[in-house]
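User: quick one, fold this
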Amino acid sequence: MEEKLKYYKLKADEQLGNMTRRMEDEVSTHVNQKEQYHREIRHLQQLLKDKQLALDTMINEKRRLEEDLETVWETLNKDNKHMKTSLRSKHNTKPLKLDGPAFEYDSEKGLLNDSGSDDY
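Assistant:
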């Protein structure tokens, strides 16, 4: 009976040792996975920061370009109005249309005056 008890105790110790090793392996695996996930999270966070920086840069550049375009548009409108006024005062005999561009360009005919014909 004592031998049977020793045998069962030995078997129980052996099984307990096996279970302990499996649990230690699982813990080690979980720790490695956790470290890998944290590395991946840091990598993705860095990618996100880089993309956000690029996006912010493009938004700022777009805003500056829109401001520049607005300035050019305003300047061209002022110049166009000045040119029409100047032409009107020089050529009082023929009224100019003031609701459209001073000149138009036709790819076949070239530069046109405001009436669409090419005689000035």
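User: anything notable?
Assistant: The first strand starts at residue 103 and ends at 106.
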